[in-house]
Amino acid sequence: MSAEAKREDVIDLPLRSRGLMVEPGAILRDRFELIAEIGRGGLSVVYKARDLVAVRAGLANAFVALKIIVEDAETDQDILALMYREARRLRELLHPNIVRVYDMDCDGNVHFMVMEHLEGQTLAKILREATEHRLELSQIERIVADISAALRYAHANNIIHADLKPGNVFIERSGRVKLIDFNIAYPVARVSRLGEEDTARILGRLGAVTPIYASPQRLMGAEPSEGDDIYSLGVITYLMLTGQRPFGAANALEAKENGISSALPGGLSKRQRTALHSALSLDDRNRTASAEHFAAQFTKPLIIALMDTIRKLPG
Length: 315
Description:
The protein has 315 residues and is of the alpha+beta class. The chain folds into 2 domains: 3-116, 2-Layer Sandwich (Phosphorylase Kinase, domain 1), CATH 3.30.200; 121-304, Transferase(Phosphotransferase) domain 1 (Transferase(Phosphotransferase), domain 1), CATH 1.10.510. It has 11 helices and 13 strands. Helix 4 (137-156) runs antiparallel to helix 7 (226-242), helix 4 packs antiparallel against helix 10 (291-298) and helix 9 runs antiparallel to helix 10. The longest helix has 20 residues, at 137-156.
């Protein structure tokens, strides 16, 4: 997580807990020193923190990000149970295009998820500041390739992001993409054991969805699937290409109900147009089957990309 992800429309008030003020300078579990707030949502606040154990060990990078929830009488215990369960699942996701989750712990009634700290900015910010709010095709292809690689890995490990949007796509200073906010990611498969059914109920109630990037199936309340992530990736790709949403002000469900279609942008190869059209299909039966397939169709094969680079070299 990074400072850029911080919401600008939220008043910065410290979180009070029993015997501890969650604010810069506070130390959790005698280990994590809070440095600065870098993000805030409806349920949690995210801090950049210094890992004092790493400092004492002489490690070059001792910074982490902590997503914090302060438990009180009104805290839904399902939320806390979900955070701990998902932290355990997400610790197993080890991929260069997915933010690392290290642990979940608590200090009194302060519960926190320990994550990799990132330097850079979200795709949402990049698009806001870009000319006409769109990017060059070569940059889009690199971003699509990284997002697709992350989704391919997550889906192979039975994890659905379920809220993929520019604000959850982070571009590091090196240019590498990392998906963030997997903290409410969804298991793909459900089993009949009581514990897993309870989780499904919790996820169904707490699952976040951003309407403009959500498939019509998700907006109708269907269980999230890999195809929903593919649809969201299609919307993000369209937005990067045009600076506009594929169905204007309408979300996918409104577009489906009113017969609204999207005009594919120019400047794409036939293969890329086909890939984007398929990813944006409002009928999930016709949607691109996998992130790997979308990337293979939309991005240039490595040899072609290298040839393009060579052609651009002087002399």
